[in-house]
């Protein structure tokens, strides 16, 4: 029983580890970054557009004495993901935790199928499904080489109980 307790404790220990969080400036992403930082993890927070918010959060995280980094990337673009991973590896030398929290949505009422254009459909799926895939594919080999790593993919309850925001978002 002590083995299990010690194993669980070491598995949950994140002090000194490097966490990459996509959607780091959003509501949940920001809270994840703050929590990881409070637990002693170095945080690479990824933002798409809100540079000022990302830099402010990164400064707040770094003020705790634990390094952090804000990196701009469109997670739906393979070249952005490659640059992101290269930047984080150059800064920290490893990636122990990947949290895929970035998401995109455009309000399209379910009954209004004509308003759901192919462009909207593709943008939502590229960000919400292809983005996490690209990141896992880029970071998975790094984690294997390190001998460990954790990947957390955040989804929406809309996948189980669509509430009218968009058919594409509910996929």
Task: Write a structural description.
The chain has 5 helices and 5 strands. It has 171 residues and is of the alpha/beta class. The chain has a single domain, classed as NAD(P)-binding Rossmann-like Domain (Rossmann fold, 3-Layer(aba) Sandwich). Strands 3-2-1-4-5 form a 5-stranded parallel β-sheet, sandwiched between helices. Helix 2 (27-38) links the parallel strand 1 and strand 2. The longest helix has 29 residues, at 118-146.
Question: What attributes does this structure have?
Answer:
171 residues; alpha/beta; Rossmann fold; five-stranded parallel β-sheet; 14% strand; globular
What's the gist of this structure?
The chain has 171 residues and is of the alpha/beta class. The chain is built from five helices and five strands.
Q: Any guess at the CATH architecture?
A: 3-Layer(aba) Sandwich
Mean model confidence by pLDDT: 90
CATH superfamily: NAD(P)-binding Rossmann-like Domain
Instruction: Quickly give the structural class.
Output: alpha/beta
The low-pLDDT segments are: none
Helical coverage, percent range: 40-55%
Quote the beta fraction. 5-15%
Order of strands across the widest beta sheet?
Answer: 3-2-1-4-5
The CATH C-level name is Alpha Beta
Order of helices and strands: HEHEHEHEHE
- Globally, the shape reads globular
* Quaternary state of the chains: single chain
Query: What is the makeup of the main sheet?
Result: 5 strands, parallel
Predict the CATH topology.
Answer: Rossmann fold
C-alpha-based Rg, rounded: 17 Å
Query: What is the tally of helical segments?
Result: 5
